[in-house]
Structure formats: C-alpha cells, structure tokens
Sequence to fold (289 residues):
Amino acid sequence: MSNLVGKVDESRPFGFVVVFTIMAATAIMAVQSLCNMPETSQEDISPLMRDTEYATPLLVMRVCFFLLCLSTLWVILCDRTPFEFKYLGNKVSLTGLARWSTMTVWTFTLETVYFGCVSLISFGYKPEGLLVFSFLLFEIVYPLAMLITVVVTFVLYPTAVKLRMDDQVQRMFHWPVLVMHVANLFMAQFEMLTTGYSFRDDHFVFPVLYGCLYVAFAWVWFLRTQIFYYFFLDWRRWYAPLAYIGLLMGLRVLYYVAAGISHFIAQHWISPFIVLTATSFCCQFRHKP
Fold:
C-alpha cells in the first residue's frame, strides 16, 4: 500500500503537531466566523415554507428517501457479519454501532435526519426552528455527499483495485454501500432540484466545522485501533499536511460549488439535465475489478 499512497514514517512525531495546528487554527477561525455571522433569515428558509402544486409528489419523494435511508442504516446496524478493514498490518472488525466510525455513515445519518425533518415539513409541521435546522443541515449534507461520492469514485475505489484489495472492491457493490456512496448524492440532487435552496456564501463554515469534528474523531479512533479508514489522514505520511490543507480547501470549494449549483438551478431551465448528468459522471466506477 505504501508504494501507492506514500510510506509511513514512524519517526515523525511532529507530524501530528503540524496537522493538529492546521485543524485547530481552522476550527478557531470557523468558530469566530460563526459568532459574527448574521442569523438565518426568512428568505433563507422560504423554499421550505412555500406551498406549491407539487406538494404531494414532493412529500412522497421525501418520505421514500427517508425510508430508504432509514432502512439502509437499520441493515447496517443489524448486520452481524463483521466488516474487516485492514490498514498497514492492523485489522478491525466492525459490527453494529462500530460501523458509525466512518465519515460515510456519519454523513448518511445526517442525510437520514434531514429527510425525516423535511418529511415532517411536507406534512405541514413547520416550526421556525425545524425550518432553520433543516436548511443548515442540508448545507452540510449536500457538499459532503458530493465529497464522499467523488473521493470513493476517484480515490478509494481505484486505489483498492490497484492494490488488489478484492474484498473491499466487492463490498463496494453491496446495495447498502451503493446507497451510501451513490444514491446519497442522487437523493441530495433531487432535493436540491425540487426545493430550490439558495445557499449563503458565509455558511461554508458549517461543512468545514463538520470536517474538523470528524478528523478529531478519526484521530481518537486511530489511537484506539491503529486504523485510518482514509489513508491521507495518517499524519505519519510526508504529505499529510498537504492532504489536510487540501481536505479543508476541498470542503470549502465544494460548498461554493454547491452554492453555485443552487443559484444555477434557479436561473436555467436546463439545469436538471446538466446537474443529473454531472452526478451520473461522478458515480461511475471506471476501474473494473
């Protein structure tokens, strides 16, 4: 594995200090921006408040998405077949709640909560707190769904194929995994197309803070298991600082891409075709096992 993703240098204890400094500085700046941020306005949540002639189809879509997400999480929770993950000679067997240690499952859980919330809104339950929470939650879920799908399609899957990690390659084609890595983005895109959100540029701090939170968890998980699910988070690799900076920049860029898509959808009638075509491109595994 080291030949493809870089060697691990056990003699680089300062590696953690460097990446910790990067993440801590980012988190502090994000919190400062959050404290100075204007409150969410009625205009921000207006897409969730309005009643349209498509209210019933929208309700059906959201409930179906919620049930699909919930059933997928239930299958993951109840599956007693251990999922074994190997990393540099270390192995962990995941069952039950231990599977909530990957960013994919974290984000898919947030997506499940989101569709549960907007299903309630579609049923007519519209307290302001729920509207604001749903809007902010989607500003995290949407760019993170893009990040997960892109990373899996263009980084993790090709790497697993090249390293002949056959078990992990085959597992990526199991339906719960496909739902979390492929259907997750399609569901988010359909929600964006039908709801018509307009993302606020200053809200990029929410996915960035979410990323910082997961990275902190990944560090704790590594100290406990000696496992990194995402090799580029391993601070012992020479390129780790660049990888962390790239991850943070990627989260911000993806948020602005999401914001750009939200504005593009509102202005162009052909936007559904373009958005769904781009989504299909991002979800195709090009390296055959």
Q: What stands out?
A: The mean pLDDT is 86. The longest strand covers residues 83-87. DSSP finds eleven helices and two strands in the chain. The two ends are 17 Å apart (CA to CA).
